[in-house]
Q: What sequence folds into this?
């Protein structure tokens, strides 16, 4: 059933003497428009802060409900909330969702017709806009023309809030840096008294500090939610112990029935091959990566969102803004490049809070391949002191952090000779590392007991001990007889890997940048018996 877009007026009539940011009135809005019974964790604090005119920095896990922190304020008083968002697909999804609920939302992007844009601008200029939420890209926000429009709306007292979604994109320390986000620092100068709400799921303290400073947040309310996702079960499967990882994944997916899943791969070629393999095995699936044209990508996305396809085998191009709530399995078929990436990507499972699984396939070859790519990227950029260099160094340190911390914990249990064989790391430890990593920055200390059987190590310790034994000998044995060389004539060409590192080439004209790794790596395994 569609709801009246003006429901707040009727709510406010019954609440005549109560300020709009009182909890009761806001809960009514939440129930009326979104059908949710209560606010989650820090949502209400964020909403009340921005409604009272205060800046707010809001750190919530993936799927934590960040959107509500600006959607409810947009409904709580007349006027507009501007939402800066990094991807057109993300804006489009949100606007479609809002319209289905009868909420006046629009987005401005290069993909729209002039007619649609003109209509939006006319509404903004009308003095009494019907729009409640306007989504824009950072590129557009920073243009003088759009800024002066914003100033006009603001001078009429109609700009209630600027929300910066995925705010970590402003920081070159973050994993999704976009230079155009940097330009948002001028917002404060142009609109000194409009509250700014920065939202992110990236917890690294450097990034947080950078975000708050870059946006010139003034005395912000800083809200940080717990990063534990109790409905997610974490499991690792070890490629070195499997005869055929493709067949293994196929049987995992079949055993889970016709459930919705995302399978992340490092390379486009793996996506294509694996997707074809799974399809041949009777699984409803499709590949998605930046090598496909726009039409093919959006058709895969549509099929998956509308359940015509259940499994997407994708590079990280399939990322931000994917809002299917019933994803039951997120599988990393190759090792993720950082803790942050692992956390963010696996966090796309179980957004409806129902039990879901994160499955990581771990293999020594993958690890070496990733290390090689990271080191190549660093040496490629070692001549310059550009942002890209800084971010490539960061990539290496992120990845080493995963390995180091994991290795240290592992060696504490089994001794130093296992220092570099962290693939035998049980996921329970991996999970606790993820939590530990975030806990350094968030809550200072999260006990490992938080796991509560939400990983294979805690749930099936005997089985895991068996795998550990087998894997340790397999890995050690393999180290003696095989050596891996990764070669690519294109490795030194920065262009093709830009997708993988950062979303930073929107300057080339495309507002929507897709991030993934190209498939042009040649693996040569030389065996020495
Ligand atoms: N108070 C609430 N009660 C129940 N469900 C909620 C509540 N708030 C948000 N949700 C639901 O949680 C899901 C995730 O919300 P949302 O998309 O805002 O998350 P997010 O934090 O922006 O995630 P991401 O970082 O992945 O973009 C949505 O389906 C949303 O409807």
A:
């Amino acid at each position: 059933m569609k709801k009246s877009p003006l429901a707040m007026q009727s709510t406010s009539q019954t609440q005549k003497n109560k300020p709009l940011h009182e909890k009761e009135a806001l809960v009514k809005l939440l129930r009326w428009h979104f059908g949710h019974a209560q606010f989650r964790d820090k949502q209400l604090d964020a909403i009340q802060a921005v409604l009272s005119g205060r800046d707010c920095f809001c750190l919530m896990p993936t799927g934590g409900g960040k959107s509500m922190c600006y959607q409810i304020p947009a409904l709580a008083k007349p006027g507009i909330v501007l939402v800066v968002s990094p991807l057109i697909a993300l804006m489009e999804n949100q606007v479609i969702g809002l319209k289905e609920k009868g909420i006046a939302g629009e987005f401005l992007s290069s993909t729209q017709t002039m007619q649609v844009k003109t209509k939006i601008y006319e509404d903004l200029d009308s003095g009494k806009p019907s729009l409640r939420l306007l989504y824009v890209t950072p590129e557009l926000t920073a243009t003088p023309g759009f800024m002066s429009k914003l100033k006009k709306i603001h001078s009429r007292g109609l700009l209630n809030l600027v929300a910066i979604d995925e705010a970590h994109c402003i920081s070159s320390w973050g994993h999704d840096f976009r230079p155009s986000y940097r330009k948002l620092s001028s917002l404060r100068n142009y609109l000194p008294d409009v509250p700014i709400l920065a939202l992110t799921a990236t917890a690294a303290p450097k990034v947080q500090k950078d975000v708050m400073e870059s946006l010139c947040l003034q005395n912000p309310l800083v809200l940080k939610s717990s990063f534990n996702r109790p409905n997610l079960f974490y499991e690792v499967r070890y490629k070195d112990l499997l005869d055929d990882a493709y067949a293994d994944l196929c049987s995992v997916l079949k055993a889970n029935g016709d459930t919705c899943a995302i399978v992340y791969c490092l390379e486009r070629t793996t996506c294509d091959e694996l997707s074809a393999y799974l399809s041949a095995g009777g699984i409803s699936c499709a590949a998605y990566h930046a090598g496909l044209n726009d039409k093919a990508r959006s058709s895969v996305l549509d099929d998956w969102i509308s359940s015509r396809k259940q499994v997407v085998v994708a590079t990280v191009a399939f990322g931000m803004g994917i809002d299917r709530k019933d994803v039951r399995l997120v599988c990393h078929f190759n090792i993720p490049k950082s803790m942050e990436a692992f956390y963010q990507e696996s966090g796309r499972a179980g957004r409806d809070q129902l039990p879901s699984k994160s499955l990581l396939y771990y293999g020594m070859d993958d690890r070496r391949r990733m290390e090689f790519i990271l080191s190549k990227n660093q040496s490629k950029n070692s001549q310059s002191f550009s942002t890209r260099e800084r971010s490539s160094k960061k990539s290496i340190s992120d990845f080493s952090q995963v390995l180091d911390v994991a290795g240290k914990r592992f060696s504490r249990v089994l001794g130093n000779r296992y220092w570099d064989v962290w693939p035998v790391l049980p996921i329970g430890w991996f999970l606790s590392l993820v939590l530990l990593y975030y806990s350094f920055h968030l809550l200072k200390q999260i006990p490992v007991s938080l796991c509560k059987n939400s990983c294979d190590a805690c749930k099936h310790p005997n089985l895991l001990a068996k795998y550990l034994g087998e894997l340790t000998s397999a890995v050690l044995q393999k180290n003696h007889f095989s050596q891996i060389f990764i070669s690519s004539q294109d490795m030194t060409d920065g262009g093709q890997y830009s997708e993988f590192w950062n979303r930073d080439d929107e300057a080339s004209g495309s507002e929507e940048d897709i991030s993934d790794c190209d498939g042009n790596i040649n693996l040569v395994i030389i065996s020495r018996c």
Notes: Residues 232-409+430-475 form a domain with the Rossmann fold fold (CATH 3.40.50.300). The radius of gyration is 24 Å. Residues 36, 39-40, 43, 60, 62-68, 201, 323, 325, 351 surround adenosine-5'-triphosphate (CB under 6 Å).
